[in-house]
Amino acid sequence: MNNQIEDQKRIVSLDVMRGFALLGILLANSLAFQFGMLGTYEPVEGMYQLGELDKWTHFLIRLLVDGSFVTLFSFLFGYGMALQKSRITNYTPIFWRRTSLLLLFGLLHLFFIWRGDILLSYSLAAMVLFAFLFLSTRPLLISSIIWFLFMSLFVLVPDIGNSPAPYYYLAEQNVIAEGTYIDHILLRLTHDLLGISAGNGFLFLIGEFVYQFNTILVVMPMFLLGAYAARRKWFVAPSLHLRLFKICLPIALIIGIAAKFPNAITGGSNTQLESLSALIGAPALALFYAGIIALIIDKTGPKPFAPLAAVGRMAFTNYISQSVCFYFLFLRIWFRFL
Fold first, then answer.
1. Taking the model in full, what pTM does it have?
2. Can you tell me the distance from the alpha carbon of 188 to that of 12, in angstroms, rounded to the nearest whole number?
């Protein structure tokens, strides 16, 4: 049973959660790979070829998948960092070496494979989390709560109404239709996702800085909460925290569905509902997924989930692999490589 796993052994439930999160990220990203980043913003030509079936499928992806799985991944990233710090004696040089490599791979992945990369953002956010890891357990929780509350304030910002998609999303459609692989690279090297730049190198740097800064703000609460969960050993012996799980999981599920449903049913057309979904609904549903997986594995043992655990053990490799496979599968770049 998982509750007999010693501290120095691998926590199988974490691998299963990572594998589960990767599959969810794969499903969520499939729209962006197939229809470009514009497909995550508004319906594009060919998206609903099967009519109502495609529309309802998209609704379920918005409700159960979008934001929640990458948020679960953020939680697990924070958990893993805190776990490593507790197990590795001379952690600081190892952390900076690993984070530097993650940053490098993030840059390569972003510019040469896919613009929706999270590795670069995670490497930068990890540098912020590193400072918090020297806090004791309770201040970690307090920091996470304060950060959550701060980010939740953005839900109060009213809907800005219909606005055009960022310039990058529109420019990418032309490259997808007619461009070569080199054109894709040049687009990513000169256009930020926020649409601040339109080929201007200096504005691209500003836009990328703002985008990464915003991403750090969004992921840090779950990074911190994951680190706190590692300190409390939530997933080493879930049965010891059964009362906490029984109280919190139903609440997380209700909040998650309630906060994400309005955005899912309106198709992401309201910016205030989108903020509610991303900043409150997605984290709540992610915590529900993590908790229910931990309880099921504690009850049944890890054997039925061995395939997911195998995926989770090689999370970094599988994340890169899915980007490469989807990029070349959907965009068919090999036909017009140059």
1. 0.91
2. 37
